[in-house]
Automatic annotation (TrEMBL):
Belongs to the phosphate/phosphite/phosphonate binding protein family. Residues 339-348 have a biased composition (Polar residues). This is Phosphonate ABC transporter substrate-binding protein. The gene is phnD_1. It comes from the Bacteria. The keyword Signal applies. InterPro entries: PhnD. Residues 1-29 form the signal peptide.
Amino acid sequence: MPVFRRPPRRPSRSVAPALLRLAALGLVAAASAVHGQSLRLGVLPVEGPLETRNDWAPLVADLSRALGQPARLLAPTSYDAMAAALRRGDIDLAVLSGQLAIDAVTRYGMTVIARGLPADSDRHRTVLIARRGAAPATLDQMLALSAKWRLARGEVRSFSGYLVPQLQLFLPRGLRMEAFFAAEVQGSHQTNALAVANGEADVGLTTGSDLARFKERFPMEYGRLAVLWRSDPLPAPLVVARRALPESVRARLAAHLTSLEQTRPGQEQLARHDLAGFEPAGDAALLDNAGLVYRFDRQSALQGSWTDEAARQTRLTRIDQEYASLRAALDRPPRRKAQTMSAADTSH
């Protein structure tokens, strides 16, 4: 039975100027770049530990065969745990989105190598769910009564479980989830759906893709749920690899991922994650994520309480400057090795 409590005020987050810390991370996890050592794939569970390992085990085995070296799965149980593993250099390859994907590239020595292609963009959205036949029966009914409902949501680092619904549903109405609901509990998309289905929460946040998976695994509980609201399509999931890996290894990983859709086993692996395939991508693929974070930070600053207007404007200016710096860093073409020619060569 989840224990509901009002969470502490979310600390202000600034988007770090891109790539400033990478110099200090240049040699982190270089051991994993050595041929023969295990490649460590990191994913965030949206279900239980066993389901997560079963879902990702075929891809891990496939990557091991493709690279000719061992591979293993790491599934940190929270966003903070994933960030800590990335910071320590414990992960070589990860499937991420949102602020954590931005941090992986700008703070933790990773680079984007591929972008996921959702199998159905209509499912690739945040959904707000309620228990069928119980209040609130509609979104309007929920919004009309503050401090009444219990919410099951994701962590504050989660795009689908926190930032997107806050940005698209609550902030435009002058509301914040932390103040609007009587109580909140944080969990995965699966546990959020279970909490609503079992009457432990009145409303919850998950995604259309995870709700479809929930229907397969918990058909009885799924029948108790109703959807009250859907977000705009979410940014695509991104695959990031450690920069310390040899460029040839990163290229082989990207080539393998983008070829999965060409074989039946690969298609089955993709279907497990509601993907049609992967396409090659670089750090500029983070711009969609960065844009949402920027809008969220600006809207939060505009609606926040400040000692005076000057303080608000100072915060807005800082947000604009940090976003401009991040955009410039992400838009920058990847650095190529200089091709130098000796004077003797140029004479030929």
